[in-house]
Amino acid sequence: MEKCWQEKGNYHTCYSGAINTNRHKIKMEFSPIILSSLSLLSLLFAAIVVPLVISSQRLLIAISFSLTAVASLLAVAAGCWVVGSGLINKLILPLGLPNLPFHLRLDPLSGFFLTVIGLLGFFVSIYSIGYVKGFLGKRSVTPLVIFYSLFMAGMFLVVLADDAFFFLISWEVMALASYFLVMFEDEKTENRRAAFLYLVVAHVGAIAILLSFGVMAGLATGFETFNGYTFDAMREAKFSSGWATVAFFLAFFGFAAKAGVVPLHVWLPEAHPVAPSNVSALMSGVMLKTAIYGIIRITFDLIHVFPWWWGAIVLFLGLISTVMGVLYALMQHDLKRLLAYHSVENIGIILIGIGLAMIFTSFNLPILAALALIAGLYHTLNHAMFKGLLFMGAGAVLHATKERNMEEMGGLIHKMPWTAALFLIGCISISALPPFNGFVSEWLTFQAFLLTPALPNALLNLLIPLGAALLALAAALAAACFVKAYGVTFLGHWRGHHNPPSAPPFMKGGKGGVEVDWFMRIGMILPAIACLGLGVFPTFFIQWMDIIPEQLLGSKIAASAGAFGWMWLTPVSHERASYSGFIVFLGILSVVAVVYLLLHTRRTAVRRAPIWDCGFGKLTNRMQYTATSFSMPIRRIFGFLFNIKEQVRITPPVPPFNKGGGGGLHYHLRVRDRFWNLFYQPVADASFWVSRQFGRLQQGRIHIYLVYSFITIIVLLVFLR
Amino acid sequence: MKTYPLITEILQIVAVLILAPIFIGWIRMVKCWLQGRTSAGLFQPLRDIIKLFYKEVVLAENASWIFRFTPYLVFGVSVLAAAIIPILSTDLSLALTADAIVLVALFAIARFFTALAGMDIGTAFGGMGSSREMMIASLSEPAMLMAIFTVSLVAQSTSLAQIALVIGHGPFILRPSLAFALLAFVLIAIAENGRIPVDNPATHLELTMIHEAMILEYSGRHLALIEWASMMKLFLFASLGIVAFFPWGIGEGSLKDIPIAFVLLIAKLFIAGIVLVLIETGLAKMRIFRVPEFLGSAFLFATLGMLSYFILE
Q1: Which of A140, A173, A142 is nearest to A156 (CA)?
Q2: Which of B78, B302, B101 lies closest to B186 in space, CA to CA?
Q3: Which of A51, A434, A707, B249 is deepest in the core (most CB within 10 A)?
Q4: What's the domain range around B207?
Q5: Interface touch A432/B105, C-beta < 8 Å
């Protein structure tokens, strides 16, 4: 592909092919980056102008979220265009620091993430039109609208930024906007606490990223100028292995904090559940992916030469996150918290792909690296779709029942048929079951694992297969977890305990559905279709995104992946392994249809009868399996990984027995994150201790403060004269 | 499209559909003989299925569409798997659809829906069965993957047809890696199919049941489909073991191979059934919390197979 650099005023655009020699023609060429700038402008318009102009809250919701939906579509168009054509677009904004204007760059890697963010942003924006109406009359939605738009703009800018300063500014816009979104329902202590924890972890991470950029910029050009802060300078630079390691691990720490890699994940299950569900969908579905983008950008693009053990560490942390994420998810009975822990798991799966790609790259096996990277990127896209869908589904349930605790739900499939069916698609996809999309990317990851015997390192050969087994364990546990989540929430009878006053009327035996409105339904139907499409036609999407490993690693897999026709995905060769989601889907569907028709040729009777109660009189809803009882076997087997406190209290019966004096058993279970006690509690205790020591300086008496000032002046005079 | 793969494909699906209940009948027959009982005959499971198809369906009051859809799906998955595994011939028109990993995942989707159906009716039995089934599945999956990994090291492929070809044409030597993998595979197959010592397919209304607990509320044609599918699953696991470890005699591309392949298959299944009965008669059902140890040893065997490949071969 021929590439050329052109200067047009402030606009740098690179085309393949056409060469325009007229350097001073100031004409804005219509290019992907212009398209993405348009998207950003409309987001800013939605954030700043619309809330000022429109006073009606109902209209504000409709207009702002329509604008963000349009902006998302523009971003998707720009992203698809760039990935499809392999262009690299640049733009320098006349803003920013002296000698360091803001650089924007849109290459296939950013284009891919732009597409992912835009796609889910589009779905969630449609969903939000319906969902946010639920807050009308309770609180002002203006902050939600403003920060939602800013949040999306921040995410777009992170993947577009091409210098360290602008990257960090965008990173902060994204972090702060999402902080305010987590804080949206700020009357609850829980929410304020979660938001604060999020803010702290986000900023510790941001400092690490800042330091990493500092190291790289300093090594690129020295500390005299700002020029080193552009990513171009970093790309050109050659780093010594020691400093490169420092820069990589600082950046990895910062991005891992954002992505929720174990053990930096503790903020995630706190912050994601308390945010409004449309925001949780975006945070979990795409905000975490900006950290993945950062890791890929820094590793493969900016540093690009690294030893294998970096990849091994990434792989190891990915595996730990995968297994711990899913195990902790199994222990949850708060639907949104469960989903948040699954984000930890899925980020782990993505990191496994990236880690394997790094290992393969460092041993100079670019085709295998391309396979692993594609697996990671494909899972990024898939996770955005199904996690977005699941959080929107959880939001719909929350919207209808005002309840996040699964133990208080049950039987919703009869009341919310649409949500139930769509949530089921999300569950199947995330559990990595064919023919949906989660399976394709996990299968590709397994294939990358199975190719590790090609590595010329005996230790890795022996240890990496165990990683594959861990991934298999996590995939199976995820299926168990979603049987639990779906079964307890949507199936069976309502499990509610005391008929709380907050419970909606239909739960108390009332008739009628509580299905959500069409905006929310469409917001969920679209990602569900995407889940199926990405699972059934993976070859098209993999061919489309093959340009990314080609640019980053110099190799691609489509040549082999698509060689056997579009129906079959054959990552290395069809003798090695093959998968056809299309035939699996069609095959199962046709057998089901044929068998159904064969069995219904004659009139068939179906009789409804009460469930079998073993002859002991009426079964009650409280006798059903709950989320806690469902996960009990796994809790028992993997109990050593959790901090479990189990209590059984027996209250003896007191007469009169018929008036609630029947006594009873009280079972109390608390499962806590071990990592909190291991890593965070000591840090929190230490900082409290230090603060208390400093607190002693504050006496509250004016003459003591005057002494402080006096001493300070003396010291300054002595030392700085 | 060539006609040969298509014909073998259809022959194979029909063979699996009919042979699976007969295979179960054979297992029950041998078991009866070993326990000194009179058996109901080779064709009793087939007769049971036909009988169930004519029975009325009684649905639980609370059952949703998931409960009604599951039997069809489970059956569909089994038929598809029967079309994919090279049982009679390695040259099938659908053989490329799935490799060993996809096949495991196909069974996983059937299990996922069966577990959901168990939760759907809202009884304690159903939930208990689902919970235990998913627990056992979670533990058997890593062991299964390890076994696949070991076999794929030998065959350089996870494609089942390729595995059968490589192992069938390779020199006949006792590979320790494959021996360990086979041992692991047998343990996994016992757990996945709910056989003794992990689960007892002959129990009803006992607190120890797992698979039966999930499908307790099924009746009529739904039950028939589920039973048929689970018979096919056992049959398919047996043929999976045969394909991966004893593929000699499988057809490879001409219709003349098929009769020989068929006879050899019957002979191999004949032995597989006896081995399974010996295992089941020799062991007692274990407590549910001993199953992790059982599957842990399967994982260990598979890992030893992988290590012995790297060290010895």
Answers
A1: A173
A2: B302
A3: A434
A4: 3-312
A5: yes
Tell me: the pLDDT tens digits for A405-461?
888 888 899 989 999 999 999 999 999 999 999 999 999 999 999 999 989 988 899
d(C-alpha A201, C-alpha A680), whole Å: 11
Residues of B in contact with A437 (CB under 8 A): none
Report the predicted TM-score, pTM, of the whole model to 2 decimal places.
0.93
Q: Which residues of B touch A471 (CB under 8 A)?
A: 145
- What is the Cα–Cα distance from A212 to A218, expressed in whole angstroms? 10
A165-193 exposure pattern, b = at least 16 Cβ within 10 A, e = fewer:
bbbbbbbebbbbbbbbbbbbbeeeeebee
Q: Is B59's CB within 8 Å of A596's CB?
A: no
Q: What is the pLDDT of residue A559?
A: 55
User: What are the distances in angstroms from CA B85 to CA A5, B81, B103, B163, B193?
Assistant: 54, 6, 8, 11, 17
Pair B168, B248: CB distance under 8 Å: yes
Give the closest-approach CA distance of A309 to chain B in angstroms: 21
For the stretch A537-556, pLDDT in tens is 998 899 899 999 999 998 88
| Pairwise CB contact (< 8 Å): B96 & A580 | yes
Supply φ then ψ for residue B159, to 5 degrees: -75, 130
Distance CA A263, CA A315 (A): 14
B77 touches chain A (CB under 8 A): yes
Please answer whether residues A428 and A478 qualify as being in contact, where contact means their C-beta atoms are separated by less than 8 angstroms.
no
d(CA B280, CA B200): 9
CA–CA separation, A586 and A567 (whole Å):
11
**Structural contact between residues A666 and A648, judged by C-beta atoms closer than 8 angstroms:** yes
Please, what is the angle between helix B257-282 and helix B176-192, to 10°?
70
DSSP code per residue over B184-199: HHHHHHHHHTT-TTT-
Angle, CA of A387, A390 and A393, to the nearest 5°:
150
- Beta carbon pairs, A and B, within 8 Å: 254
Which residue in A528, A557, A593, A486 sits closest to A388, CA to CA? A528
Summarize pLDDT for B166-222 with one digit per residue, the tens.
998 888 788 899 999 999 999 999 999 999 899 988 877 677 889 999 999 999 999
> What domain count does chain B have?
1
Distance CA B102, CA B109 (A): 10
Q: What letter does residue A618 receive in the DSSP assignment?
A: -
Q: Which of residues 114-153 of B touch A (CB under 8 A)?
A: 115-116, 118-124, 126-128, 130-132, 134-135, 137-146, 149, 152-153
- pLDDT digit string (tens) for A2-53? 333 333 333 344 433 333 434 444 445 788 888 999 999 999 999 989 888 8
- B116's CB contacts (< 8 A; 6+ apart) are A483, A486, A487, A491, B66, B70, B130
Beta strands in A454-549 (DSSP E): none
From the CB of residue A717, how many other CB atoms can be counted at a distance below 10 Å?
Answer: 9
Structure token digits, residue A206? 């941001």
Contacts with A310 (C-beta within 8 Å, 6 or more apart), sequence order: A245, A248, A299, A358, A362
Distance from the Cα of A333 to chain B's closest Cα (Å) equals 15
Distance of CA A53 to the CA centre of its chain: 33
CB distance A609–B60 less than 8 Å?
yes
For residue B69, the chain A residues in CB contact (below 8 A) are 592
The domain segmentation of chain A, as residue ranges, is: 312-502+511-601, 630-675, 681-720
Predicted ipTM beyond 0.85: yes
Nearest to B70 by CA among B84, B59, B81, B56: B59
Q: CA torsion angle for B198, B199, B200, B205 (degrees, to 10)? A: 150
User: Looking at the complex, does the CB of residue A586 fall below 8 Å from at least one CB of chain B?
Assistant: no
Distance separating alpha carbons of residues A415 and A489, to the nearest angstrom: 12
